Amino acid sequence: MKDLWNLRTFRNDLSKLIEVIEIEKVTGDFSELQKLLVIIDQKERVEYKIENLCFFINGKIKGTLPEQINYYQVYFDIMVMIKEELNINSDPLGCYNLDITVKGYENKSTLKKDYSSRWHLDKHNNEGSTKYTHPIYHFQFGGKKMELIDTELSVLSSPRIPHPPMDIFLGFHFIISNFFNAKQFSFVNSLLANYEYLQIIKRAQVRLWKPYFGAFDPLSTHTDFTMNNVFPLYIN
Questions:
Q1: Rounded (5°) CA angle 197-199-205
Q2: Is 104 helix (H, G, I), strand (E, B) or coil?
Q3: Radius of gyration of the chain (CA)
Q4: What is 34-90 written as a DSSP string?
Q5: Confidence of residue 2 (pLDDT cuts 50, 70, 90)
Q6: What is the mean pLDDT of residues 96-102?
Q7: 214: number of Cβ within 10 Å
Q8: Between 20 and 30 A from 190 (CA), which of 40, 223, 224, 234?
Q9: Average pLDDT of the segment spanning 205-228
Q10: How many C-beta atoms surround the C-beta of residue 102 within 10 A?
């Protein structure tokens, strides 16, 4: 477990990701990654907080309303802190928070009016009873910004959609895969053909997704990633 969260491995992957972003010419402002590269050298374990990492999407996203939006800025905020004592049978993350905020504009040159959308990936402490189904890691639509929008819009805390935790690497991959049209942006398929990028993502998957999806193995001895915690809708 400790080898998976080795600080040097994380730093190397972060450095390689920055290089890949530059080589493939991914559109956005990724200066926060450069700052993190310096900060991480001062840490003794993997812990970081990034705010306003921004992706630029110059074009329409199919199925989006209102239809006149033709330019987007996707903001990615994340906070990760692993536990001091790691155990193969428990969740390695002590503190966790992830937000994706999408701002759409009708005019790229002026950026006068923005249409906002927000998703939040949260970690829930399953101690005690809850009023509604509450997966240990879950996506929710909305946030503080959404609460201030037009009174005709209703923003609910439900449903909480089960989803595995994502670190900076898996979060980056999530945004590239879900918001950028692969036919319009050539770097999407280039990333998926880039050996270094694939290895970075695969290592992140082993760290976070392999134990999470192990909950579906009836022989699993994990105390946090259990079927009831990961997918409480399931009735055994």
A1: 105
A2: strand
A3: 19
A4: HHHHHHGGG-SSSEEEEEEEEEEEES--TT-SSTT--EEEEEEEEEEEE-SS--TTS
A5: low
A6: 94
A7: 16
A8: 40
A9: 95
A10: 21
Q: Which region, left, alpha or beta, applies to residue 66 given φ > 0 means left and ψ of -120 to 50 means alpha?
A: beta
Comparison of pLDDT for 27 and 114, the residue scoring more: 27
Look up tokens 């695969």; give the residue. 202
Question: How far, CA to CA in Å, does 70 sit from each of 66, 130, 216?
Answer: 10, 41, 41
Amino acid at 226: T
Q: Where are the domains of the chain?
A: 7-230
Cα–Cα dist 236/224, whole Å: 17
- Omega before 232 cis (within 30°)? no
Secondary structure class of 121 (helix, strand, coil): strand
Beta bridge partners of 118: 101
